[in-house]
């Protein structure tokens, strides 16, 4: 039997997918959707434990977060959340919203490098 908390998170995740930020939309459409990043599947607004992450590649255990204005107020909460997920084996990349919107090439380079390093750690030659 599923908990009501999980059902609430599913509803919220769907809502966040529809009402994402400009940076999230750009990153999803131009970089992560449809296995565009080195052939890896990424999910958007995905639930892990009791948290919703912006993007995750479950195969590589890589989470990508876009930090908009609201994250300045939630920095302590973000730190606890990130620590919990890192303890589950996930690695994080965080980008400010403005960087994604105005310097997407730099963001793509950083993501590509991180994915390549994780592939190498897993012994993959993709």
Folded structure, characterized:
This protein has 126 residues and is of the alpha+beta class. Helices cover 53% and strands 20% of the residues. It contains six helices and four strands. The chain has helices spanning 4-18, 22-32, 70-73, 75-87, 97-102, 104-121; strands spanning 43-48, 51-57, 62-67, 91-96. The protein has a four-stranded mixed β-sheet with strand order 1-2-3-4, sandwiched between helices. The longest helix is centred in the last third of the chain and has 18 residues, at 104-121. The protein starts with a helix and ends in a 5-residue tail after the last helix. The mean pLDDT is 89.
Gyration radius over CA:
15 Å
Approximately how much beta-strand content do the residues carry?
15-25%
* Element string (H = helix, E = strand): HHEEEHHEHH
Structural class: alpha+beta
Q: Any idea what the shape is?
A: globular
Q: What share of residues is helical?
A: 40-55%
Count of strand segments = 4
Low-confidence stretches: none
Q: With helices defined by DSSP (H or I, 4 residues minimum), what is the helix count?
A: 6
Give the distance, in angstroms, between the N- and C-terminal Cα atoms. 39 Å
For the structure shown, list the relevant keywords.
about 130 residues, alpha+beta, 6 helices, 4 strands, about 20% strand
Q: Topology, pairings included?
A:
Layout: H1 4-18, H2 22-32, E1 43-48, E2 51-57, E3 62-67, H3 70-73, H4 75-87, E4 91-96, H5 97-102, H6 104-121
Parallel strand pairs: 3-4
Antiparallel strand pairs: 1-2, 2-3
């Amino acid at each position: 039997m599923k908990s009501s908390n999980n059902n609430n998170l599913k509803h919220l995740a769907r809502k966040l997918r529809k009402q994402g930020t400009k940076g999230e939309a750009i990153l999803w459409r131009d970089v992560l959707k449809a296995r565009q990043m080195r052939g890896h599947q990424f999910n958007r607004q995905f639930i892990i434990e009791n948290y919703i992450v912006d993007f995750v590649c479950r195969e590589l255990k890589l989470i990508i977060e876009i930090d908009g204005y609201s994250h300045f107020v939630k920095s302590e909460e973000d730190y606890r959340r990130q620590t919990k997920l890192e303890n589950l084996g996930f690695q994080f990349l965080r980008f400010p919203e403005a960087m994604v919107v105005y310097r997407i090439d730099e963001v793509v380079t950083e993501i590509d490098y991180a994915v390549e390093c994780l592939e190498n750690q897993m012994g993959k030659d993709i």
